[in-house]
Design goal:
250 residues, alpha/beta, Rossmann fold, OB fold (Dihydrolipoamide Acetyltransferase, E2P), five-stranded parallel sheet, five-stranded antiparallel sheet
Length: 250
């Protein structure tokens, strides 16, 4: 790992100490420039040291990590959130494409997050991702959710309900939308299957992930699905029974 300068922001001393220890043990290229226990001191340390990366807790006595980001805008550092949030918030992080680590922090995940930060020190998309996260958190338990998809030249924010299906394309995934638009993004279909399966999506075939809401009919004899946009999607034989059971429940 190349040199990375870091500021740690967390209101718990034991968490800051643990992160420093993990960085020393597993990230020899990382240098901790400062620690901060609240929003006010964090803003001062970040402005003073100009770190490459900020490891940022979300809940602190004088505000949230999101408040800090807003106060420091424009952002010229990479942010990795440190959180103890529940599964719904974790899902919101994934949909929003924000970098995060769960407490207690796993050393391998910390190393991976910092390696990723090295490769992507551009932060111009952070505000888009934060707004998407906040929108998703405010809609927990409701249908309206958004997902951030990044292509080579653009960042897309989509309503999940507008995704008809996803299709594997080697190391990429193609998103087919109800508008007829297609978006090709880096990442395997499995990644998006893991992310979207909680929101009425079903892996009908090793190369296809479908939104159950857009199924028009199941053609059992042909082992295929006809979607509401008239597209045809293969249905793997081993998946047929599970799909039919899901459709009966919904």
């Amino acid at each position: 790992m190349q040199t990375l300068s870091i500021v740690i922001v967390d209101d718990e001393k034991r968490i800051r100490t643990s992160l420093c220890h993990l960085l020393t043990m597993y990230c020899p290229g990382a240098t901790v420039l400062a620690e901060a226990e609240n929003i006010e001191s964090a803003a001062a340390e970040i402005k003073k040291h100009r770190p490459d990366v900020v490891l940022l807790d979300i809940d602190m006595p004088d505000g949230t990590g999101f408040d800090l980001i807003k106060n420091l805008s424009p952002i010229n550092f990479k942010v990795i959130f440190i959180t103890a949030f529940d599964k719904y918030a974790v899902q919101a992080f994934k949909y929003s494409a924000l970098d995060y680590l769960l407490k207690p922090v796993n050393p391998d995940e910390l190393v991976n997050a910092l390696q990723k930060a090295q490769q992507q020190l551009q932060t111009e998309e952070l505000s888009i991702k934060l707004n998407t996260f906040i929108s998703n958190m405010s809609n927990i338990g409701r249908e309206a959710k958004k997902i951030v998809l990044k292509t080579q030249d653009m960042v897309h924010v989509l309503n999940i309900s507008d995704i008809v299906r996803c299709e594997a394309d080697r190391n990429y995934t193609k998103f087919i939308l109800s508008s007829g638009k297609n978006i090709l993004v880096s990442g395997s279909l499995k990644e998006y299957d893991d992310m979207l399966s909680q929101d009425k999506f079903f892996r009908s075939h090793h190369s296809h992930l479908i939104n159950l809401s857009y199924i028009d009919r199941v053609e059992k004899q042909n082992d295929q699905l006809v979607m509401k946009d008239s597209s045809l999607v293969p249905l793997a034989t081993r998946k047929k029974e599970a799909l039919l059971q899901l459709l009966e429940k919904n």
